[in-house]
Design brief:
globular; Rossmann fold; two-stranded parallel sheet
Length: 173
């Protein structure tokens, strides 16, 4: 993994993105849409404040990239319109972008979602996310990522992340 870089976790709710992020990255490196919702509304599930939550997520990511720090975006990132501003941001700071896509079976997503204590996503939303993942995977190779990794239930626990330290890019005015 290039460090620093922008890492996008991509996958349906319940796919294991947050668990993966907590296992492989420092808490300060992970910028979570759920946590941003909680910081604003005291509720990770409050979809009514998504605009403000994602504005905060982008602000934190921008600040980390500006400081030459790794930023891991823990959100579904299933739609190109969600990924595009993050890709632009990384280009602005001359940071590579890595996509880690979670191709988790829908039954696993549903089971993991039911087991959550802190928040619950409805089954119809998770089914929609699974369809959106297929669309995302069909175009992700064309979006300009430095690397794309595809994980499923059989590979996710075997991942070992090796960081390749990069010189901080110099920005020209």
């Amino acid at each position: 993994m290039p460090d620093p870089s922008l890492i996008l976790l991509i996958g349906p709710s319940g796919a294991g993105k947050s668990t993966f992020a907590a296992r492989h990255f420092l808490p300060t490196e992970v910028v979570s849409s759920d946590r941003c919702r909680a910081m604003i509304a005291d509720d990770e599930s409050d979809q009514t404040i998504n605009h403000a939550a994602f504005a905060l997520l982008h602000q934190i990511a921008r600040a980390r990239l500006s400081a030459g720090k790794l930023a891991v975006i823990d959100a579904t990132n299933l739609q190109f319109r969600a990924r595009r501003p993050l890709l632009r941001m990384a280009r602005q700071y001359r940071m590579p972008v890595v996509a880690i896509a979670f191709k988790t079976a829908i039954n696993t997503c549903l089971a993991q979602n039911r087991a959550r204590r802190d928040r619950f996503v409805t089954e119809d939303v998770i089914e929609k996310h699974a369809r959106e993942l297929s669309d995302a995977l069909s175009r992700i190779e064309q979006e300009g990522y430095a690397r794309v990794y595809l994980l499923d239930e059989t590979t996710v626990d075997d991942v070992v992340i090796e960081r390749m330290r990069r010189q901080r890019p110099t920005l020209k005015s």
